[in-house]
Amino acid sequence: MSSGDTTSARHHPLAQLILARLREFCREPAAIFWVYVFPLIMVVALGVAFRNRPLEKATVAIAAGPRAEATLTALAADPRFAPRIASESECREQLRIGKLDLVIVAAESDAGYEYRYDPTRPGSQLARDTANDVLQRRAGRRDAIVTRDSVFQEPGGRYIDFLVPGLLGMGLMGGGLWGVGFAIVDMRIRKLLKRYLATPMRRSDFLAGIMLSRLVFTIPEVVFLLVFSHLFFGVVNHGSHLAVGLLILLGAFQFAGIGLLVASRAETLETVSGLMNLVMLPMWIGSGIFFSVDRFPALVQPAIRVLPLTPLIDALRRVMLEGAGLGVIIPQLVLITAWGVVTFVLALRLFRWN
């Protein structure tokens, strides 16, 4: 390559724009905090809040009566219960407001029991069945067959394992929309786009440069989050690292394209902020960042499944938690790629310098 070709490549608009974005990012401590530090704070806060803890004791009240003490003694010997004796009125009130899982009334005339509980609360139903088992055994019941317990504790079934892929998707969404869309409108407000218009830079070079510079920030951001989750919470990727890397790149491309489209005509920060919140809110709620999308009714499932963030998080969880290969997540890969290509093409057609 001649010196002229080398100089031309070095000063190509695309390369210079990426370099300028990198320098601008490094000069803003606030941007570094939101990109690299805030996701870690989310992982730590939610990981600690929903960490694996010893099984909570069931709160049980025994209605005062002649057999209340004997019932209390039977349940207190089991570490799964926190029993106490209370009056009928107190039992009813505490059960109504959810401070009790179960109320037991020991009949005076016979050895029977009455269980009062809310069947719509899983903890209440579990407390009823467990208490009944303890009291029945104390009365002499025996198991018809012999069983044994085998404790299984492997990474993958904890909430933090479920959460990390969702936070990865959330970070890619926020980075693409705010890191791309907000940056473009900010340049439009500062009249920088008009200056770019006076240069021999093509519109495609400008938009591609913005997207590629975002990808440069994304790689260390995601790697940092994955390494931190592994070291501090033992989160393991059961699938291919190549598959995870491909999903991250396609996800970053997808949301960068959406960010470009949102900012293609916006002229104020208030407008682009409103548009980005409008785009992100359905995905914050419905795409399964913090809980499974299966919780939503079947009627809205088709709409939820085509949201840009849903296939990304779904594919990340299938790879990281289930060890799925690329062949299994092809539908998600196609949908993610389609979102990225369509939004970039639309942004290219709709984009205005001023």
What do these coordinates show?
The protein is mainly alpha-helical. It folds into 2 domains: 35-51 and 158-350, no CATH class; 58-138, 3-Layer(aba) Sandwich (abc type-2 transporter like fold), CATH 3.40.1710.10. It is built from 14 helices and 4 strands. The chain has helices spanning 3-10, 13-26, 29-49, 68-76, 88-96, 122-138, 159-189, 192-197, 203-233, 241-263, 269-286, 301-305, 309-322, 330-350; strands at residues 58-63, 81-86, 102-106, 113-116. Strands 2-1-3-4 form a 4-stranded mixed beta sheet. Strand 3 (102-106) and strand 4 (113-116) form a beta hairpin. Helix 9 (203-233) packs across helix 10 and helix 13 (309-322) runs antiparallel to helix 14 (330-350). The longest helix has 31 residues, at 159-189. The chain is elongated and about 95 Å long.
Question: What is this structure's SSE topology?
Answer:
Blueprint: H1 3-10, H2 13-26, H3 29-49, E1 58-63, H4 68-76, E2 81-86, H5 88-96, E3 102-106, E4 113-116, H6 122-138, H7 159-189, H8 192-197, H9 203-233, H10 241-263, H11 269-286, H12 301-305, H13 309-322, H14 330-350
Parallel strand pairs: 1-2, 1-3
Antiparallel strand pairs: 3-4
Helix pairs in contact: 2-9, 3-7, 3-9, 7-9, 7-10, 7-11, 7-13, 9-10, 10-13, 10-14, 13-14
